[in-house]
């Protein structure tokens, strides 16, 4: 298997250096570049096409959320996934990061092993969205005074069941147990939902489920 390529975007050079040392000393991971602001992060993603970008929220010139949106939506042809990192554990950041297209959200005080695991999980196409983060995301969405409910796409009854459980933060194993399905079957359904709904990952499936009222 080829190495997972990682780009770093943070306005603190010392923090970038620490992350780079960790990544460069982890077999299977390679740091392909650093950016000191959001605009540089977008340019770096366009140039290097990394598998994963570790993105700070508060940066000059362009915020991390705006840069994430540009990478995940404006440059949708890129294979790049974004993990948003911040020192601020605020609901608005969790919600904003996922809305922008991020595949994960972590605090900067994350342990090294947890960060490495997060990079590998997101690079593999999964969402780094714990049940706790999912509940906060749902709460933030439901608190919007004028949230828009979009028409629900065509789905089978079983696909709706799986999507509803994904939206509640259930893992594939938990979905399999609850619906009495095999793990392989659940993975097939999740993959089908991703393709049918045009979602990048499970985090986007959660958003779609709530925007269409399927929860």
TrEMBL record:
Keyword annotations from UniProtKB, A to Z: DNA-binding, Phosphoprotein, Transcription, Transcription regulation
Domain spans labelled HTH luxR-type: 148-213
Any one of the GO BP annotations: phosphorelay signal transduction system
Signal sequence interval, chain numbering: none
Post-translational modification 4-aspartylphosphate, affected residues: 56
Gene Ontology MF, one: DNA binding
Pfam families assigned to the protein according to its UniProt record, in alphabetical order: GerE, Response_reg
Domain Response regulatory: 5-123
PANTHER family registered for this protein in UniProt: TRANSCRIPTIONAL REGULATORY PROTEIN NARL-RELATED (PTHR43214:SF24), TWO-COMPONENT RESPONSE REGULATOR (PTHR43214)
UniProt-recorded name of the protein: DNA-binding response regulator
């Amino acid at each position: 298997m080829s190495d997972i390529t990682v780009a770093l975007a943070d306005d603190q050079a010392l923090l970038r250096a620490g992350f780079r040392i960790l990544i460069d000393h982890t077999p299977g991971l390679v740091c392909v570049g650093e950016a000191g602001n959001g605009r540089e992060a977008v340019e770096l993603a366009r140039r290097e096409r990394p598998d994963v970008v570790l993105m700070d929220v508060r940066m000059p010139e362009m915020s991390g959320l705006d840069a994430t949106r540009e990478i995940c939506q404006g440059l949708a042809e890129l294979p790049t996934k974004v993990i948003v990192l911040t020192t601020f554990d605020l609901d608005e950041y969790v919600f904003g990061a996922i809305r922008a297209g991020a595949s994960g959200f972590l605090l900067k005080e994350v342990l090294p092993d947890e960060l490495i695991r997060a990079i590998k999980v997101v690079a593999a196409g999964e969402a780094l969205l714990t049940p706790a983060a999912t509940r906060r995301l749902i709460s933030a969405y439901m608190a919007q005074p004028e949230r828009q409910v979009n028409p629900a796409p065509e789905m089978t009854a079983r696909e709706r069941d799986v999507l509803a459980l994904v939206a509640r933060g259930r893992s594939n194993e938990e979905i399999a147990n609850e619906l009495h399905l095999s793990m392989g079957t659940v993975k097939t359904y999740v993959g089908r939902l991703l393709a049918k709904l045009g979602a990048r990952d499970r985090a986007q499936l959660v958003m779609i489920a709530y925007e269409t009222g399927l929860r």
